[in-house]
Amino acid sequence: xxxxxxxxxxxxxxxxxxxxxxxxxxxxxxxxxxxxxxxxxxxxxxxxxxxxxxxxxxxxxxxxxxxxxxxxxxxxxxxxxxxxxxxxxxxxxxxxxxxxxxxxxxxxxxxxxxxxxxxxxxxxxxxxxxxxxxxxxxxxxxxxxxxxxxxxxxxxxxxxxxxxxxxxxxxxxxxxxxxxxxxxxxxxxxxxxxxxxxxxxxxxxxxxxxxxxxxxxxxxxxxxxxxxxxxxxxxxxxxxxxxxxxxxxxxxxxxxxxxxxxxxxxxxxxxxxxxxxxxxxxxxxxxxxxxx
Amino acid sequence: xxxxxxxxxxxxxxxxxxxxxxxxxxxxxxxxxxxxxxxxxxxxxxxxxxxxxxxxxxxxxxxxxxxxxxxxxxxxxxxxxxxxxxxxxxxxxxxxxxxxxxxxxxxxxxxxxxxxxxxxxxxxxxxxxxxxxxxxxxxxxxxxxxxxxxxxxxxxxxxxxxxxxxxxxxxxxxxxxxxxxxxxxxxxxxxxxxxxxxxxxxxxxxxxxxxxxxxxxxxxxxxxxxxxxxxxxxxxxxxxxxxxxxxxxxxxxxxxxxxxxxxxxxxxxxxxxxxxxxxxxxxxxxxxxxxxxxxxxxxxxxxxxxxxxxxxxxxxxxxxxxxxxxxxxxxxxxxxxxxxxxxxxxxxxxxx
Lengths: 292, 352
Hints:
The complex is a heterodimer. Chain A is mainly α. Chain A contains eleven helices and two strands.
């Protein structure tokens, strides 16, 4: 069977859109977890992704560990980084004005990006011959294997997070804290630990994305910036604080982005995605699943 | 001793309240403070006017100009965010509109940038109304992210539609130096005074705004939107007025910037980094206060330049950003309401 070029093109576009959308969702889940818990946007989110990608790169170059196997290490490292950042900086910012919180996380992002610049220079780096590479072609449709693996990783992470949040006692405590931290505290939940855990999970989830992305993307100090922007929009479309919202919105953004690039010109794909965001929040100010 | 101090601080509070009324009645301590303030302003004005004659190096004048520009930009942002409560992360839109309008009019029609500045400001006000109308339904983070989206759309459109050279940007023609054409060749002092003058106009406007009813409505809109609505204040109308004023001043700086650097492209006049820096300057100084944005600019801009000089900038070493980032975090962690709050503490401690 041979597909006509038009049909093949459309299927190609849709598949690529879903694949990249899963990545967006994977990067957005940390933003939405942290926001859901403490009503705070982590503007340094992309910088932690960048740190994770550098970790994957250096582990591959210096130790010879493939990103696929260094993933647990990176997840644990970013989880611990989340706990530390919470203890050192974020805890002071709880209950403060939104601008103070913004200033803290903006400062953090400037600091981390500067540090990466200083330590590793702006030079673009790429992992040499990762295990997952190449692409498969079926019926004239080409799909990159690293992209498929990254999307599967995203879905697995979502599955695990869902199980953790809905089936375990700690997950229940997390949800209670997100709903009303003060009442949760009265019920004997250690909300301080829940916030710290939120930061650990939020940044730890980036570890999965970082190692899977480093399979096929260049690593440099500003790599996280654009991804973080996309993650913020995915969270805004899905609803701040909603985990499944981030998944649905991330995939929707990926599809719209690829359709726009296909039907219009590639240069207009981002204006169309941002326009979609404006349309969605005009119709539903809190996004798909958000609550005020 | 404590009673005297307590009494004095009560008296000072009373005086402050009296002085913040539209018609201040000067008496006793209040008059004394204000006469001191006059001296302070006179000395400040003399220093600022004499600066380019004392510090002649281009770099020294350049840094001072950046301070004035960010003081003015942060103050313009402060009108909308600090006083009216809508935190915008998209103010680079207005800056870019100002820069592009005057530049394109100059290139196409050889129109004087002064007129271009006026047209740019008008266009920015129109744009602000188009942006404000749908987005003022949102508050807090929702509004902030929406403004990021719009500024990204505008930036990408300028690139995609190849406006003014698209991504490559455009350089401004070097015309004969004249005040009329906003061109002063190699001498930096005229740009310095223009930047200073506009920043002072913005500051005086906000000083006036604090004392007229409009300013009271702005603050009511920010602090108690529901109560204000229930008292018949059309909060959306006041937000629209605030963003119009804010956009107007921001666009004017865009034109001055383009005339000064002779080069614009979408990445230098429309970037999110510019919007973020404006927010950082205002927030570090103290958003919603009269002098916060000015203090922020006088601290943050020289700080950034100082760390660049001390720790090396450019592409090879970026230690300056490390130090700069840590200082921003420190301000946020120790005084989330900005440096003006430190001054407030000091005043309380002294019992003023």
